[in-house]
Design a protein that fits this description.
alpha+beta; Elongation Factor Tu (Ef-tu), domain 3; DNA polymerase, domain 1; seven-stranded mixed beta sheet; 36% helix; globular
């Protein structure tokens, strides 16, 4: 019934969709197996993509030839560039999406991708031969053979849903859990554990009084996520902000004795940086209110997502508490919030390619690795799909460095440090965030992906054009002299000192509060000189000019740290021979098997002296 496939992808969430697309676009014949064809690319939690650091990841996915940025741009109902008041390294795109349109667009793009087949069934176990994965066995008893398997099971592995004292199996509400894979992998020597995440109630938007809330509109300029020309919406939907209060908190506390979080029925650790509302009022008892974001689920629906009110308390407690929130006095709940507990596999069991160490040709991506968030899952799926294709074709894996991408930071963090709670990306996790900006992901990554065979010729040509344009504008600003008279009015409007003599435009641009677009609008000669260049090119050139000193400092730091990254530790290195290593370092090195001295230095619990000892022992 089934042919032999190159790559089988198990699960069709954000990780699975990107894995299937990337492997197929590289030329592998792919089978995407999902338990429900109607929930491909489902936004299980909030209807939004991007945000702080997450937006940078989506732009990196797009620069590498993934689909998430394009899908988001096609389905967005609101766009905001966060942190505009800070430096460009902190700018982070975020979009509200139409939940149904997002999933439909993803499925349409996958269906139009050659080499992708689909099948609806549960995968119960893997076919293993001679220490390698060789396919899957489904719930209907089909044996489907492949050269590699990518497991992207999300929250479905032995998933258990909790609402107050109610407890039932499921990977998402109204969807059954997946069984069999964890148990098999444990017998093969894998280590597994449990994590927990949650979601807030969905409510009827017609029952809200928006006059009691703060409106949050989208940006006038929609930048979007994709570096390709994707049409942007001509209108946007507003979000709204309201707040909890002490009365809300007091009502929530009445349900604590029935909360699975506090009665011990949930054993898995929840996300530290996206806590439930009961967790917030317990951990931050000094706060008398917490912010809630009221997010529409799409263009043509009345359903609302209450961001900030994730909970697993009894439904009646959720209802009573919500009615005390300003604007929610007559709220109607479509679906209560709930917590879900699921299996994951500590990611120290992975290589940087996301191939598992215990079983060859098996790759993990997404929440199975202990991460949380669509963006973190999607980028892992992209990399797992790429590297599954590379592995079965005896090609070098694509491994992004920490200095090259947030994706590289995420994967290195997972493998070097592991995680005992759902991992979420933050800008603070990256040492080189001045280099890893959302505006330059194409300049950093597109050529790499193009040479691999993933990014299209069109993408590469756009990147070359942008790069050339940026250099031309930078050269122009170095040579273009501003006269004191023609710049006087403009500089005065910006509260900036007048020029006493001619000065290069580049130097004037370095002043606080001065930007290239407003300066050119005020000085006709300059406006004529930059005529024809796109806003994207002008912004990129301005950023590079303004932050040149900081960019060069980070590049120097990258070069210095690269010395450790270039020192490769041989496979199966015998650490037991080094008697002077600390016990903790010895255990961590043997467990994680770092690829380089740089990775070894980032392992939690490893001291600089341990790295120096290892370096000396390697003859360095």
């Amino acid at each position: 019934m089934f042919p032999n496939y190159d790559v089988i992808v198990v699960g069709a969430g954000h990780a699975g969709c990107e894995a299937a697309a990337s492997a197929a676009n590289l030329g592998s014949r792919v089978l995407l197996i999902t338990m429900n064809m109607q929930t491909i690319a489902q936004m299980s939690c909030n209807p939004a993509m991007g945000g702080i650091a997450k937006g940078q990841i989506v732009r990196e996915i797009d620069a590498l030839g993934g689909y998430s940025g394009i899908v988001t741009d096609k389905s967005m109902i609101q766009f905001r560039m966060l942190n505009r008041s800070k430096g460009p390294a902190m700018w982070s795109p975020r979009a509200q999406s139409d939940r149904m349109l997002f999933a439909a667009t993803w499925r349409e793009m996958l269906e139009q991708t050659p080499n992708v087949d689909f099948y609806q069934d549960m995968v119960n176990s893997l076919i293993v031969k001679d220490g390698k994965v060789a396919g899957v066995i489904t719930g209907l008893g089909h044996e489907i053979h492949s050269r590699a398997v990518v497991v992207t099971s999300g929250t479905f592995l032995n998933g258990v849903i909790h609402i107050g004292e109610k407890r039932f199996g499921g990977g998402r509400v109204a969807e059954k859990a997946a069984t069999g894979i964890t148990e098999q992998l444990v017998t093969l020597g894998f280590e597994s554990d449990r994590l927990k995440t949650g979601t807030p109630p969905r409510i009827d938007g017609r029952s809200l009084d928006y006059t009691k809330m703060e409106e949050q509109k989208g940006d006038d300029e929609i930048v979007g996520f994709s570096y390709m020309d994707i049409p942007k919406p001509k209108k946007q939907r507003s979000c709204w902000i309201t707040y909890t209060n002490q009365t809300v908190h007091d009502i929530l506390k009445t349900g604590f004795d029935r909360s699975p979080m506090y009665t011990g029925r949930i054993e898995g650790v929840g996300p530290r940086y996206c806590p439930s509302i009961e967790d917030k009022i317990n951990r931050f008892a000094e706060r008398d209110r917490h912010q809630l974001f009221i997010e529409p689920e799409g263009w043509n629906t009345i359903e609302i997502y209450v961001n900030g009110f994730s909970t697993s308390l009894p439904e009646e407690v959720q209802n009573q508490a919500l009615r005390q929130v300003p604007g929610f006095e007559n709220v109607r709940i479509f679906r209560p919030g709930y917590a879900i507990e699921y299996d994951y596999f500590p990611p120290t069991q992975l290589k940087h390619s996301l191939e598992t160490k215990p079983l060859e040709n098996l790759f993990f991506a997404g929440q199975i690795n202990g991460t949380t968030g669509y963006e973190e899952a999607a980028c892992q799926g992209l990399m797992a799909g790429i590297n599954a294709h590379q592995k079965i074709n005896q090609l070098e894996p694509l491994i992004l460095k920490r200095s090259e991408a947030y994706i590289g930071v995420l994967i290195d963090d997972l493998i070097s440090k592991g995680t005992e709670e759902p991992y979420r990306m933050f800008t603070s996790r990256a040492e080189f965030r001045t280099l890893l900006r959302q505006d330059n992901a194409d300049l950093r990554l597109t050529e790499m992906s193009y040479l691999l065979g993933l990014a299209s010729q069109e993408r590469m040509e756009r990147t070359i054009t942008k790069k050339q344009g940026v250099e031309e504008i930078k050269d122009l600003l170095k040579d273009f002299s501003l006269e004191p008279g023609e710049s006087l009015e403009y500089l005065s409007s910006k509260n900036s000192a007048a020029l006493l003599q001619k000065q290069k435009a580049q130097q004037v641009l370095l002043r606080p509060g001065i930007d290239l677009i407003s300066m050119s609008n005020a000085i006709p000669r300059l406006k004529d000189a930059i005529e024809g260049y796109t806003p994207e090119i002008l912004e990129q050139a301005e950023i590079q000019v303004k932050y040149d000193v900081y960019i060069e400092k980070e590049k120097d730091l990258v070069n210095r740290m690269a010395q450790l990254e270039d020192l490769i530790i041989p496979d199966n290195f015998n650490y037991d021979r080094i008697s002077s290593l600390s016990n903790e370092a010895l255990q961590k090195f043997k467990k994680i098997q770092p690829r380089t001295l740089g990775q070894a230095s980032r392992i939690s619990g490893v001291n600089p002296s341990d790295v120096q000892i290892l370096m000396v022992f390697m003859g360095r």
